[in-house]
Amino acid sequence: MAGTLLEVDGLTKRFGGFTALHRVSLSVRAGERFGLIGPNGSGKTTLINCVSGALAADGGRILFEGRDITTLAAHRRTRLGIVRSFQIPKPFTSMTVRENLGIPLEYAAHARSQAGDADAEAAEILRTIGLEAKAHLRPAELTQIEMRKLELARAMAARPTLLISDEAMAGLSSVEVDDILALLFRLNEQGITIVMIEHIMRAVMRFSERVVVLDAGERIAEGTPAEIVRNPAVEKAYLGE
Amino acid sequence: MMARPARALLVGLAVVGAGIVVAALRVNQYVYFAGYVVLQYVVIATAWNILGGYAGYVNFGTPAFFALGAYTAVFLIQSTRAPLPVLILAGGLVSALLGLGIGYLTLRLRGVFFSIATLALSIVLQTMIINWEYVGGSRGLSVIRPSGPPFGSYVTFLFTVMVLLSVVAVTVARFIERSWIGRGLAALRDNEEAAECMGVPTLRLKLFATTVSGFLLGVAGAPFPYYVTFVEPNSAFNLDYAVNALAMPMIGGTTSWVGPVIGAVLLGTAQQLATVTISSEMNLFIVGVVLVAFVVLAPEGILGLVRRLRGR
Ligand SMILES: Nc1ncnc2c1ncn2[C@@H]1O[C@H](COP(=O)(O)OP(=O)(O)O)[C@@H](O)[C@H]1O
Ligand SMILES: [Mg+2]
């Protein structure tokens, strides 16, 4: 069994009096395809906001490669290799698609390793993701699926060790879902650990080796996709929605 | 082919040289008097744009930074009669500190709330100066210019100093814009959360922008006491500075260093002409009308218009 890459230990997050996450623990192994599911509002985005550093946790610890990163600034976590995409795409609107990739290449990828050829790297990522023809367009000129792809391409440009994809497929057609899934499989084959957050069961069940289920801010189940679909607590959480 | 920085340096030197030539021409003194104000606005608009244009944090408190530079100079003139270069450097540094302070405000305040806070800052600072008798309090203070400027009259000398300061300000802005800092600022202007998640140290870059912007605004204000020879809070904290600092980059275009220069030269000159031909009250009126026209018809300023005409 490979070593643990990410460990979330007893994480709690409150918004005022409302507890969005209550002592959630999980661990992701290096190289794994990990699924995080749960009904709307169960705390999935909040959890990855805490892991990526966008939100400060109120309790618990987060370890990455054995190092405690609970209070580390978000941009430092990105440079360590934890990269997330946003559920609602947040492109740099004044920049072209190519320039959007330039930011993580310059600030994350090359801040970590030796400076590389940013143009070649950006071109390669855009080719992989199928956006090479759109390199000089601005985000406002992209379609919904292209915008999602840009979100993933930008995350790839940061050269993640751990890629967290927050509902990259919501609202896409099933062909488009397959497209994104194939891409994530390929990234995983290249050695990138992937945490996939999805509201839709189908995609996440096909993709994940292991799944954790959140409901109302608590972890209610963990197991292989086959175990999860048979789990009565999970069924109850989804039906009771 | 010359290296780019060398070319930029050469252009800068040429502009300063041209300024000295203009100063040596000894045309009507009014030309230098008005030219000083226009150049002062080149510095102000360029400084404002480093924070407002590049980073997207709209500062309504320009008068606070400008006046802090001016009053630092007044204090040093009163206490030590320090030479002009010292006044300029000190004025810049004190305003840079204030800039660093408002940089930390960006941790909690964004958008319009940040702007309101900077406006409030200007009012608070003005109240403090009004109650500080040593620098003239509410009545103001006469400042005696040092006798014997290095060349020409004192006004032509100040004009030349402002040419030099404009070149410095524009060079700094241009350097920032084209460096990794400028690209990081553009990213956080577009989306601060996404920028941070892509590895951009947003707080550090914002502190850098507020500090440099504050420094240059203070620099613009430091020679002011010798220019007007009578400093009082209402003129140093004039609302014109807040409005012009914002309007000039908006009219020229905020995404490039050229924009604030174009805006300051056009609007500044128009205001100076209006002051002599119509009345000084026309100043803000002109700015208001032009600004509204631009915000509605050409939100990306003159640079945006040019780009659109070229079909890019
Ligand atoms: N910034 C916030 N302030 C207040 N409440 C929030 C905030 N972010 C999320 N919440 C609340 O926390 C809960 C979990 O939200 P979220 O993590 O977005 O769920 P999910 O991604 O699983 O759909 C929801 O009830 C949501 O309203
Ligand atoms: Mg969510």
Please describe the biggest sheet of chain B, giving its number of strands, its sense, and whether it closes into a barrel.
2 strands, antiparallel
- Strand tally of chain B, please? 2
Overall mean pLDDT of chain A stands at 88
Largest interface, with counts of residues having CB < 8 Å to the other chain, equals: A-B, 28 and 20 residues
Q: Distance N terminus to C terminus of chain B?
A: 28 Å
Radius of gyration based on Cα positions of chain A: 17 Å
Number of domains of chain A: 1
Run of helices and strands of chain B = HHHHHEHHHHHEHHHHH
H/E topology pattern of chain A:
EEEHEEHEHHHEHEHEEHH
Instruction: Note the overall shape of chain A.
Output: globular
Strand order of the largest sheet of chain A: 6-7-8-3-9-10
CATH architecture of chain A: 3-Layer(aba) Sandwich
Helix and strand layout, with pairings?
The complex is a heterodimer of chains A (241) and B (312).
Chain A (H helix, E strand, L loop, with lengths): L3 E12 L2 E12 L3 E5 L6 H9 L6 E6 L2 E2 L5 H7 L1 E4 L11 H16 L5 H12 L14 H14 L4 E5 L7 H16 L3 E6 L2 H7 L2 E6 L2 E6 L1 H6 L1 H8 L2
Helix pairs in contact in A: 2-3, 3-4, 3-5, 4-5
Chain B lengths: L3 H21 L4 H26 L7 H19 L3 H22 L5 H20 L10 E2 L11 H25 L1 H11 L1 H6 L4 H20 L2 H5 L1 E2 L1 H4 L2 H14 L5 H20 L4 H16 L3 H9 L3
Antiparallel strand pairs in B: 1-2
Helix pairs in contact in B: 1-6, 2-6, 2-9, 2-12, 2-13, 3-4, 3-5, 3-9, 4-9, 6-7, 7-9, 12-13, 12-14, 12-15, 13-14
Bound molecules: adenosine-5'-diphosphate and magnesium ion.
Adenosine-5'-diphosphate binds next to helix 1 of chain A.
